[in-house]
Amino acid sequence: MERLTPRVGIGQIAPHKPMIRLPNGGRPLIDLSLSHNALGPSPRSITAYRQAAQNLHRYPDGEHTALRMAIARRYDIEPDHVTCSNGSDEMIQIVTEAYAGPGDEVLFHQYGYHGFIKAARMTGATPVIAAERDLAVDVEALAELAGDRTKIVFLANPNNPTGSYVPAEQVQRLRAELPAHTLLVLDSAYADYVRRNNYDPGFDLVSDHDNVLMVRTFSKLHGLAGLRIGWAYGPPAIIETLDRVRPLYNVGLPAQAAAAAALGDLEHEEATLAHNDSWSAWLSHELRAIGVRVYPSVCNFILVRIPPDPTMSVPTLSQHLLDHGILVKSLGHYGLPDCMRITIGTEEENHALMDALREVLD
Ligand SMILES: Cc1ncc(COP(=O)(O)O)c(C=O)c1O
């Protein structure tokens, strides 16, 4: 009898690693390992979430109408050019399922967000990986690898975990060099944090092409990672395709309400950005002062390289931090064994991190 086996590619997906959530001597654990918003969600989102609790017996709006309208108003786009998902991770999966399958190629960059390779494997498509240069995307390398079989190119801009970004002019060049049958997916999860004049999250590129999609999330700037809400902006034909593929009730009722409310709280957004700007600069400065290499980041986290020292590897350092109740992200699985990703925390968390690091690195 034939053995039961999962589809081709599934066995190559890395299994989820259990998250460490150790008690920290009665104190809350300082979790700088995921790119959470240090200030938490907007109070308006919390109120909307609580109000939605009255209606938990109802299915959510399968068309995400109010949320799409709120997104459209905020970004001055058409609501029918938008669809929503259970986190932007789900959108990455939906778009890959819709456009790629066995025999097709899904192209992305070397240190690109790990959701891309997973989505490619899930659909049975072949992942193709373009080398980066000095932890930044090389658009020429991406364009060179695109061919007849390339159905999707994913560009995380800015990228996680590197924190680097691709200037708008290079993204336009990439689109021009890709085949017309290739969908360019701009994963702009951290777009809101970027303070650079030559950056563009992708609105214009989407409106000017029939083969570009921009994917966004409420997990970062809006501090709603726990509710799982993502969205995509694209040409109506692509949005209609994604809507066919996605589960009808993919975004929960409280999630839709909290996300729509978040868009009305510009004060919270500004506070988040101001906090990130000042503490990212502070942390980078303090880390460099103790000999840690800090890569320039336009996100709410920074990528650091630990100086070579036989007694202080990333696992040893991570354990030392864990002993102080602090979690950071090791990047061995990204092929960066001497690097860590550190999220910008609250003032107290950032100081706790530096105090713990100075004990062993100063
Ligand atoms: C570049 C990038 N894209 C997408 C995601 C997925 O975010 P979410 O599913 O929370 O919207 C993340 C999460 O860290 C990310 O870093």
TrEMBL record:
<protein>
    <recommendedName>
        <fullName>Histidinol-phosphate aminotransferase</fullName>
        <ecNumber>2.6.1.9</ecNumber>
    </recommendedName>
</protein>
<dbReference type="InterPro" id="IPR005861">
    <property type="entry name" value="HisP_aminotrans"/>
</dbReference>
<dbReference type="InterPro" id="IPR015421">
    <property type="entry name" value="PyrdxlP-dep_Trfase_major"/>
</dbReference>
<keyword id="KW-0663">Pyridoxal phosphate</keyword>
<keyword id="KW-0368">Histidine biosynthesis</keyword>
<comment type="pathway">
    <text>Amino-acid biosynthesis; L-histidine biosynthesis; L-histidine from 5-phospho-alpha-D-ribose 1-diphosphate: step 7/9.</text>
</comment>
<dbReference type="InterPro" id="IPR015422">
    <property type="entry name" value="PyrdxlP-dep_Trfase_small"/>
</dbReference>
<dbReference type="GO" id="GO:0004400">
    <property type="term" value="F:histidinol-phosphate transaminase activity"/>
</dbReference>
<comment type="subunit">
    <text>Homodimer.</text>
</comment>
<keyword id="KW-0808">Transferase</keyword>
<dbReference type="InterPro" id="IPR015424">
    <property type="entry name" value="PyrdxlP-dep_Trfase"/>
</dbReference>
<feature type="domain" description="Aminotransferase class I/classII large">
    <location>
        <begin position="29"/>
        <end position="357"/>
    </location>
</feature>
<keyword id="KW-0032">Aminotransferase</keyword>
<dbReference type="InterPro" id="IPR050106">
    <property type="entry name" value="HistidinolP_aminotransfase"/>
</dbReference>
<comment type="similarity">
    <text>Belongs to the class-II pyridoxal-phosphate-dependent aminotransferase family. Histidinol-phosphate aminotransferase subfamily.</text>
</comment>
<dbReference type="InterPro" id="IPR004839">
    <property type="entry name" value="Aminotransferase_I/II_large"/>
</dbReference>
<keyword id="KW-0028">Amino-acid biosynthesis</keyword>
<feature type="modified residue" description="N6-(pyridoxal phosphate)lysine">
    <location>
        <position position="220"/>
    </location>
</feature>
<dbReference type="Pfam" id="PF00155">
    <property type="entry name" value="Aminotran_1_2"/>
</dbReference>
